[in-house]
Amino acid sequence: MSAWLICLRAIVGREALRFIHQRARFLSALVRPLVWLLIFAAGFRNALGVSIIPPYEVYITYEVYIIPGLCGMIQLFNGMQSSLSLVYDREMGSMRLLLTSPMPRWWLLMSKLLAGATISILQVYTFLAIAAAFGIRMPWDGYLLVLPVLFVTGLMLGALGLALSSFIRQLENFAGVMNFVIFPMFFLSSALYPLWKMAESSQLLYRLSSANPFTHGVELIRFALYGQVNGWALLWTFAALFTFLFLALLGYDPARGLMRQKG
Amino acid sequence: MSCGAHPGLVVENVTYAYGNRKALDDVSFTVPTGRFCALLGPNGAGKSTVFSLLTRLFVTRTGQIRISGMDLSQNPRAALALMGVVFQQPTLDLDLTVRQNLSYFAALHGISGRDAVRRIDMVLGWLGMAERAGERARHLNGGHRRRAEIARALIHRPRVLLLDEPTVGLDAASRRSITERVHELCDDDGLTVLWATHLVDEVRDEDELIVLHRGKVLARGIASEIAAGERLADSFLAMTREDAS
Question: Does the global pTM surpass 0.90?
Fold first, then answer.
C-alpha cells in the first residue's frame, strides 16, 4: 500500500476509534436530531403544511420533510466539532503532530476531512435507521444513492469548519460557533421549511437562504434520498467545498493563518 | 540519502516577529551530528518559536534552516522526514494504547504492517516501555507518557531529534532518567539532539549549549567553556540578569 493510503487509513482509523471511545459525543450527535424529529416535528406537523414540491410526488408529513435537513444538521455539527476541537480542545498538539508528517499538507488536511466525513456518515445512517424504526422511511435505493452525496456534503461542512478554525480567533468557544455559524446556517436554509415559505415572509431572508451552501447540501441529500440528483445543488455544494477547502489550505499554510496566530 | 558530511542542524540568521514584536533576532547556531545540544533560555526567550520554525509550523523568509543538510524551505517534506519531534504540549491520544498511538504516528510516515510492529517494539525497548505497549496512555504517569512520546519520535529513524521542554512537570527521578536516556541515544546511535529547556541542571559539561534570551543568542559553544569555571547555573543567571538590567 502506498504511503499516502497508509496515512489516510490511519487518520480515518484514529478518528473512528476516538469517536467510539467518546460515547457521550455519539449519543449527543444522535439525540439532537431525534429531539427535532420526534418532538419538534410532531408538534409542528399541523402548524406547517408542506405542499407537493420536488422530489416529493405525494403529500408528505412534516417528519418526512425534515429528515434531509436533520441529516445535514448532523454533518454540520460534526464538521464544526471535529475541526474546531482542534483549536478549543487539547487537540492542538495532535494537529501539530499531524503537520510534522512528511506527507503533503493538503493530503493530511484532506485525510482529516475524509475522516470527519466518514464519522458523520456513520451518525447519519444510525439516525436514518432509528427514524425508519419509528416508521419514517425513504425509498430503499435512496439509502444507497445518498451515500456519495453525504461524502460531498460532509467534506464541504468539514472544510468550512477547518477554514473557520484557521482564520477566526474570536470564536472562543463552541457557544460562539453555535450562535454565529450553526444556527444561522441551519435556520437560513431549507432544512426546516421549504424556501418558498421563506419567500412569503421575507425576500431578503429568502435570498440569503438561497445563497446558503447548507441549503444546497440539504437539497442534494433530499433529492438523493428519493433516487434523484439535483444538479444545481450538486454544483453549489462542490463550489462551496472547493472554496472552503482553498481557504482551509490557506489557513494552514505555515506562512499565515492559524499556526502563526497560535505561536 | 547520505547526509553524513553535513552538520545535524544548522540555523542561520533567522529572524521572526509576531506582528511588531520580534520573537527571534538574527538567531544562528549549528549542532554537529551526533551531539546533544541544549537550547537554554528563560521563559519567553523564543525557544518555542525556534521549535515552531524548525518543525515548519510557521516559516520565515529571513535566514535558513537545514536538517542534516536538507534545506527546510526548499525541501520541507524531505527535511521533516529526517526529524523527530517531541512537543512541549502532550500529544498522545489518551484513549488509545501506547502501541496504537505509535502505529498512528508510524502511518503518518507511511510505515505500516510488520515493519511498523518491528520498529515500534524496538523503540519501546530503547525507552524501557516494552511492557507498557498495551496500556492506554491515560493510565500512564507523566514520565512514561514522555517516554512514549520520545519512542514515537524515533520510529521513522530520524537523524535529528527535537525536544521542546520535554521534562516540564515531571518529578526529579523521571527527569534524570529521560535526560540520561536521550544522552545515550546521542552517544550510541549518533542522533543529533536539540533539547530546549530552562532547567540548567539538565545540561552536562560536555554538551553543546546555546543560551537564548529575548530572541537573541547570548552564547553558544561547549557548556563547560561557556560556564568558564563557574557553575553553569550562576553564569546563566548572570548572563540573563545582566541583559535584563
Answer: no
Number of domains in chain B: 2
ipTM for the predicted complex comes to 0.82
Is there a contact between B83 and A93 if contact means CB atoms under 8 Å apart?
A: no
Please report residues of B whose CB lies closer than 8 A to that of A1: 112
CB contact under 8 Å between B89 and A90, yes or no, is yes
> What domain range includes position B118?
92-157
For the purposes of burial, counting CB atoms within 10 Å of the CB of B228, is it exposed (0-12), middle (13-18) or buried (19 or more)?
A: exposed
Q: Among the three residues B116, B134, B157, which one is the final residue of a domain in this structure?
A: B157
B58 and A CB contact within 8 Å = yes
Question: Does residue B146 sit in the same domain as residue B205?
Answer: no
Are residue B124 and residue B144 in the same domain, yes or no?
yes
Q: Which of B94, B108, B164, B165 to mutate to test the interface with A (most CBs of A within 10 A)?
A: B108
A158 CB-near residues (< 8 Å, 6+ apart): A78, A79, A82, A83, A112, A113, A116, A117, A120
Q: Yes or no: say if B203 and B223 are a contact pair by the CB < 8 Å rule.
A: yes
Measured distance CA(A64)–CA(B63) in Å, rounded: 61
CA distance B59 to chain A (A): 5
User: In this structure, are B129 and B215 located in the same domain?
Assistant: no
The reply to whether B177 and B140 lie within a common domain is: no
Of the three residues B116, B137, B157, the one that is the final residue of a domain is B157
Q: Between β-strands B36-40 and B192-197, what pairing exists: parallel, antiparallel or unpaired? A: parallel
C-alpha closest to that of A79 among A234, A227, A206, A185: A185
Q: 554537529: which residue's cell?
A: B32
Does the residue B201 lie in any domain?
Answer: yes
Q: Which residue of B has its CA nearest to A9?
A: B107
Q: What is the pLDDT of residues B123-180, one digit of tens each?
A: 999 889 999 999 999 999 999 999 999 999 999 999 999 999 999 888 888 889 899 9
Same domain, B123 and B219: no
Based on the domain organization, do B98 and B146 belong to the same domain? yes
Residue of A nearest to B112 (CA): A6
Q: Mutate which of A19, A26, A86, A100 to test chain B, going by most B C-beta atoms within 10 A?
A: A100
